[in-house]
Every structure is written in C-alpha cells, then in structure tokens.
C-alpha cells in the first residue's frame, strides 16, 4: 500500500477492525517514511458475469430493484427487500467463488423470495425461468402446495 502523502511503497498497520457487518475490514496505517496516517478499507470482491459477458460488481440494489417489480402490489416492505438482498448476498458469498453469473444470482433469489411472498415468487420465477405455458405455472403452484402440505404437520 503506497502512502497517499509521500508515495512511499510501504506502510504499517496500526489498527484493524471489521465494518459493514463483517463484510469489510478497516485498517489504520502509518507510513514509516513520513509518519502520515491514513485509513484503508478491504473488501472481498464479488463480481457478476452478465449474459453479455460483461463483468460488474455484485449490487444488493440490483437484487432489490429486480425483486421489487415482482413484489409490486404485494404486502412487502422496503425493509423486507433489504433483508432478502442481504440473504442473497450471504448465500452467494458462501459459495466461496468471486465470480458468479446472473443465473446463479437468480437461483439464490428464488428461495428467500418464496419464503417472503409466494405470489411475488411466482411472478419472479415466471420471468426468470421463462414460463411458456399455463402448465409451467401449474407445476410451480403444485410444488408450492406440496411444500405447504409437508410443513403443516410440523407446525401443529
């Protein structure tokens, strides 16, 4: 790390602490040449490879905006969407890879969205999984009903 004051090529870490819910590390550094102190932030990069081949950093905001459309008119709050985006980011980071394609992000969205709102889940899945017919919707609804029937005895 170069000193921002004198451009010396070395610095010494004098303090480290996590920030952003443990997603980044804040380091306080000191230059051995000029004695200047400065702060750096380190984050693990997570990149998304779009269908066009373009790579861009993962964005919770993009997850929220995509899911917001499916949740339009549903009883889903902005806080619910923020929590969903956090869950999606945590899930994709747990894969341990630094580059994911958009398909993997979409798959990571489906589970938390299904838990949040089933109608929004069907809307998102119909676009994401390119439903072509009523049979596609019926199959998805059958899966949802099967999950409900499996969960009912456990809830009692």
TrEMBL record:
This is Transcriptional repressor NrdR. It comes from the Bacteria. InterPro entries: ATP-cone_dom, NrdR-like_N, RNR_NrdR-like. Binds 1 zinc ion. Transmembrane segments: none annotated. Belongs to the NrdR family. Residues 1-20 are annotated as: Disordered. A zinc finger (unnamed) spans 3-34. Its cofactor is Zn(2+). It holds the Pfam family ATP-cone. Negatively regulates transcription of bacterial ribonucleotide reductase nrd genes and operons by binding to NrdR-boxes. Residues 7-20 have a biased composition (Basic and acidic residues). GO terms for biological process: negative regulation of DNA-templated transcription. Keywords: ATP-binding, DNA-binding, Metal-binding, Nucleotide-binding, Repressor, Transcription, Transcription regulation, Zinc, Zinc-finger. PANTHER family: TRANSCRIPTIONAL REPRESSOR NRDR. One of its GO terms (molecular function) is ATP binding. Residues 46-136 form the ATP-cone domain. The gene is nrdR_2. Coiled coil: none annotated.
